Amino acid sequence: MNSESWKTNISKLKDFFTSEAAIISLVTAGLFFSSSVNLLYSDRLGIDPILVALFNILFIICESYLLYTIRATFNFWLYVKIGASYLIYLLLSYFLYATQNINNVAFDYLDISKVFRENGYTFNLFLILGLTLVFFFFDKYLKKSAFFLKSQVSTRENFFISQIMVSLFVTDTKFKSLLNTSSFLKVEQENLVHSLFSFAFLFILFSFLSYLFVKGISDLFRYRASLSSAFTISLLMAIIFNYTIQLGILLKGALLNRYIFPGATAFQILILTLLFFTIYLLINKFLISTYLSLIIGTILSIVNYVKFTMRGEPLLLSDFKWLKQFDLVLSFVSMTYIFYAFLFLCFLVITYIYLRKKVFYQPITDSWKRRLTGIVAVFATLLIITGALQTGKNKKIMDGVPVLSTLNNFNDVSWMGHATNARMKSLVYVWFKQATTPIMEKPSNYSKENIEKVYQKYTKLAAEINKSREQNIEDQTVIYVLSESLANPDRIDGVTLSKDVMSNITRVQEKTTSGLMKSDGYGGGTGNMEFQSLTGLPMYNMSTGVATLYTEVVPQMKVIPSISDQFASADRYAVHLGDAKTYSRADVYKKLGFDHFIAAAGTDEKASNIKKVGLFPSDASTYENVLAKINDKKSQFFSVITYQNHVPWLYGKPETVSGTGDQFSDAENSQLSNYARLLYQTDIETKDFLDKLSRINKNITVVFYGDHLPGFYPSSAFQNNPESQYQTDYFIWNNKKNTKLNYPYVNSSDFTAVLLAATDSKVTPYQALLTQVLNYASVDKKELTAKQKEIADDLKLIEYDIISGRNYISTTKHFFNKDN
């Protein structure tokens, strides 16, 4: 840039800041500062609300006079644009207000008065327009007065309107909420200067963004592609898709007296805006970027809704790995959705072909420097966010990061699962937590020396336990049966069934070691339950960002301890009458040392005689494939997953079985009835399976459990007993002799220890550790003593070592086997 250009730009800046623009900025900044300081510091600084009221009056007078002074330049249409801007703001403000109340059953979307109650600027705007008319009335007197500013340079119209937009935001109730919950502004009184700088930063930021938005609206009406119009459309789409995404994971009701946590809406809109704006910057073509953004936003919203409807879980980052198995994904999607998606795509293609040479055909910007600057700014923002989340400790991040600090540090509800976190803290926040949180936090006492101490401790304990046990588990056949979605509906508040649909299973539970199992998911998570059951490694020690153990954790593990390892010299079978690609099971089972994988598709050993009950292979078909492989001459191990009761539930027999629930919709009652009928069949077929095993002349033990509840229950069903949402049934049965031990509530990771105790089987040092956890530190213990916590920490050390650590335990001998 040459010296003449510099002089020209400096002259323009000088003219700009000596015109009405400077007055507008000062007056708006005054209102911004006085309102902000009063809201945050009135209780400590003794700021009189009258002072704020006086400043507001000054603001009204100045804005009125500025309208009067620029009347010659902007004429009648200026007032039309101000009114239009006001209406646009009210519409967006109300839409955001409705979004934040999306889970509020009592919210009335048709109560238009909320639009004006949310914004206190309505009266001010009418005063400004009224005073402007008064100034016009006294026009000839004002022209003679030297007191009033004489307009030398016309104020830029977009800037003037953008400052009015800032004024609108300052008087909005959401601005008050932002100030009251922002850790960025909440500092101690002695740091008031810091706060003032923060206010200045916010004012400049809001002014800049408001200017871009107003200019973008202006460019859009002129069919002009520009960075401003790209930003405006990005923001508008972000606001809309923020709503559709949250609508897809709708769970009516409040949590901690809130329908969404502070900062959630702002954070998700920010990230979506950055995503869409990046697309514009990279492609530099307005129409195709807009269409691509629409497609991305629509797909995310629909897939998120479909997954939540089917499994009670939102779309997660780990789910994008399913794109490698796109044909399998499509098999779960209704043809109705595919048809509408095809129509939508055709509409976009046709309109693009028609419009691409008529409107917005020019590049968004000719300056590669502006594009690069924009892209760098976007990625810098994302780096700040990820850096803040990665450096957090004890699930808290440092204060002072706008929006994010408030959102992350406001009440940790991570233990309530991805659905609740996505609902209360936004789906995008859950994605960032998944991407930035390690699988396990490193224990403070993690070291090779401490791993050696754990090894020595439980090697000694294993020897003590084995003195009183006579059996070896590998001398018999063990069958783990994960029964899809099995959980007795009788435990759910308000549910009434026409008959007991699990009577046979209940009778088995009465005579065996049995009880309830804590599930880590609601409506989904089958693979996670199977992993924990086989390995003894609990998810509660891992990050809450982990969603799918088989795809996120297993691939990086060098050692995977499994009960199936005890059967290394026997035949090991995995049986699941679905597709072997699901959850990468084929690869996982190979890593676990299974010799055979029987599935409906994707393996060399395909299941036989598959018959459906409802929409999926029956439990009877699964059991028949297991029975066909049992060899009464040698020991075997089976990991079996049934498929019959998978979502969606559609089965009408017998009609005498039905169910209803308090506050259930007709659709939910219908699903409950269909599900109960499927359970009724499971109950019959499971009894028949056990009866057939009883007639086999070898020792067989069955570990039977449900993986999770079906996802159709409304949230109201768990209000009185929240734990019931994550409780399924289990029993451990033997075809020769049953022992009833007292383990009424266990984690899925406890099954190895329960199995060995129930069969009086010897343990490895690792299994001795699992036995201690079962007896002293499992999920049935609410408060742990120091000794119990030490046991829990020992397991956490070993789990971290083999998942995220240096695998020190592998340098020892025999920790995972009994050759000691």
From TrEMBL:
Domain of life where this protein originates: Bacteria
Q: What are the transmembrane regions? A: 21-41, 47-66, 78-100, 120-138, 195-214, 226-245, 265-283, 290-308, 328-352, 372-389
Sulfatase N-terminal domain boundaries: 476-760
Please give the GO cellular component terms listed in this UniProt entry.
plasma membrane
Q: Report the main location listed first in the record.
A: membrane
| UniProt key word Cell inner membrane | no
Q: According to its UniProt record, what is one Pfam family this protein matches?
A: Sulfatase
Alphabetic keyword roster? Cell membrane, Membrane, Transmembrane, Transmembrane helix
Its annotated pathway reads:
Cell wall biogenesis; lipoteichoic acid biosynthesis
Q: How does it sit in the membrane?
A: Multi-pass membrane protein
Q: Which cell locations does it reside in?
A: Cell membrane
> What's this protein's name?
Membrane protein
Give the organism, scientific name.
Streptococcus ferus
